Amino acid sequence: LGGHGPHHRRLAAAVMATAPSPAQQEAAKFSQICRNCAKPTAIIEDHQQGDLVCTECGLVLESRVVDESSEWRTFSDSDKAGVDPNRTAGPTNRMLANGGLSTSIGKNPDGTYNQTLTRLHNRGANPDRALLQAFGRIGEMADHLGMTSVVKDGACDIYRTVVKPGQPLLGKSQPAMFAACLYIACRQEGTNRTFKEICGGAPNTTVKEIGRCYKYIVKAIDGLNTQMMEQMITPEKLTNRFCGNLGLANLEFLKLATAVIATFRSLRITEGHTSEKQPASVAAAAIWLCVQIWRGEAAEGIDVKRISEISGMAEATILTSYADMYPYAAKMLPEAYVERIPELEAPRMDKSDAAALEAGLAGLIGDAENGALLSLPPL
Question: What is the band of 77 on the pLDDT scale with cuts at 50, 70, 90?
């Protein structure tokens, strides 16, 4: 019935009209004739085994019959006092031993519990108990940070791979280990989060502890270090998210900020600077530089304090990275923005450094007017 014409629609409607109802299917199930007796006999259904059995000869007419009736559920506390009407258990969990299936002690026929048997059963060692508690904590952190279920499941899988049942984490706190697993899962799924952002949702831990646990996990899992190197967090990736949270999700502004970051990196490498700054601080500094020269209502009212709140970096850290960028402004900015360099706020420095910087910027602007700037790709 895969066609879309009038004939196919009429045929589909006819099939639906002639299909037996659930009541008719139930009646037909119990009115069939036993093959052994060859006459109408009484047929009963064994709900526990899922079989249809002839009462005359005991022949099993059908096996594994699916019960299509509605499932019972418990809603109020008063319902829990009686017999549990649920016929199915919860979903299986591939991260736990035996799929998370376990044994529970039921009630006596009179509705009471066998306290001795229940106490002995609960006293037994459950290898999944610690994992379930850890998965719950990871889920709470992920929900607090607004992460998806895919990231949450990935973090749980990483934790299960690294932490073995019965083996304590010597010198490593559990909150830091949970946060490190979430950080790695974010990297794997392309959801960029910094250590400071992850630390904001992990109570009773520090960025240093999370970094220590991150290194431990990377060493413990084969091939994870290479994967993390291939999925490095770059300032360009963070810029898109920071600009979106600031209300600067403008394509031209994103191109400008990305071009500033890329040129700043190449200039620093050309001059022999090998030390890398934090990606978040570079992204925040580039946004602050571009905001000052941007002609648009979206950039109004955005200052270093606002950028600090969104990026999670301290204002002093952002201004330090901005001070490193400022001398390269004439080389980083496209030609259309060079004339706006005087609008940039000069970083705080000593008088001698300020004079040297001012002289250097004057020379760079003069070179720009003479067409001696680095050639940049058009935005």
Answer: low
